[in-house]
Amino acid sequence: MPFIYLLVLGTSIWVLVDGYRYEMNKNESPILWFIGCLLLWIIAFPWYLAKRNHYKLKDNSEKGKDSKGSSKIELGNPIKTPNFLAIGCGGLILLIIIVSMINSGLQGANKKAQDLSKQNSNNSTNTNPTPSNNSSSAPQVSNIAVNGDEAYLKLPNIDDTGSAILLATDKKYLDEVTKTLINKDYMGILELAEQNKAFAVHNGSKVLVIDGTMFARRVRILQGTQPVDSDKVGLSGWVPMEWVVKK
Question: pLDDT at position 141, please?
């Protein structure tokens, strides 16, 4: 941008000097053209170049004869020729405008690219946090019981052995049994037991895992925690996987 400032100042001074060579109208003067070029160069300078071709050069010669009696030739209007200076300056102005627009566009594109890169970097940081050293946040794989493991039936966050756990007699009844427990439909629990779709043992009963899917386990009752569980020993049923733990 300093180049443009120098260009404006240099051409404005040239207009001031060049203007004194021409006869101008009463409402025009080199000083006014100079000020106009400084304040509004993009309009005033091309306008001066266009009008300059129509001004008359000042005639400083005396009319008539000199002291020796020789006649002097009186200068008339200069021969008008194509104003190549105006054309060249106009082309230069256009070139400066184009270069400035390209430069502004490149700066804007670079800024957008930097902002996008910074945004992507922030998103990457947010979506890939530093792994925590807290082992409690990770699933305890060692506590998951698989086929052949001896484990225990335990309700989540409940240690009371007086609480009953309902097992589905067949895998196809597991969803029905689970919904009944979640809804606390005690009459529905009794109905499932009467239909031989489910049976109950107490929390903490010892079992053997004999089959399973991704979200469920089939277990055989080995030992109950209450005397009433003795008649369930040897029976098998299905429960959610998280209810079967090794310890």
Answer: 62
Q: What is the pLDDT of residue 136?
A: 43
- pLDDT value at position 92? 63
Q: Which residues pair with 58 in a beta bridge?
A: none
94 alpha-carbon distance from chain centroid: 37
Kind and range of the H or E run holding 12: helix 2-19
pLDDT, tens digit, 9 for 90 and up, residues 27-39 = 788 888 888 888 8
- Give 144-206 as a DSSP string: B--TT-EEEE--TT---TTSEEEEESSGGGHHHHHHHHHTT-HHHHHHHHHTTSEEEEETT-E
Cβ-based neighbours of 48, under 8 Å, separated by 6 or more: 15, 19, 33, 36, 37
Around Cβ 98, how many Cβ atoms within 10 Å?
10
What secondary structure letter does DSSP report for 109? H
Q: In the structure, what pLDDT confidence band is assigned to residue 91 with cuts at 50, 70 and 90?
A: low
